[in-house]
Design a protein that fits this description.
Oligomer: single chain
Structural class: mainly alpha
Number of helices: 2
Strand content: under 5%
Number of domains: 1
Largest sheet: none
Order of helices and strands: HH
Radius of gyration: 19 Å
């Protein structure tokens, strides 16, 4: 195992982690912005109003993108396990 193998594995692991987190972070960011605009317009400063839409957006993201996320992480894991033999030589 040389330095380029480690760097390639690290790069692909970071890429998978970012691509898996983007749908959830994106939808919760949009929900947070919408709630912030709503609170600014109506001057309603209720703390629970900020959390509930974000939680619902995260659940929606997991529902919509969950199968894709699962297949992506399974594929990455299979590739990692299959490369163990090549790397350990």
């Amino acid at each position: 195992m040389n330095q380029s193998d480690v760097m390639e594995f690290s790069r692909s692991a970071i890429q998978v982690a970012i691509s898996l987190s983007l749908p959830i972070l994106g939808l919760t960011l949009i929900a947070g912005l919408l709630v912030a605009v709503f609170q600014a317009v109506t001057q309603v400063q209720e703390m629970t109003l900020t959390y509930v839409p974000k939680i619902l957006a995260a659940i929606l993201a997991l529902t919509l993108f969950g199968s894709w996320m699962l297949s992506t992480i399974v594929s990455f894991t299979q590739q990692s396990f299959s490369s163990i033999e090549r790397v350990t030589k």
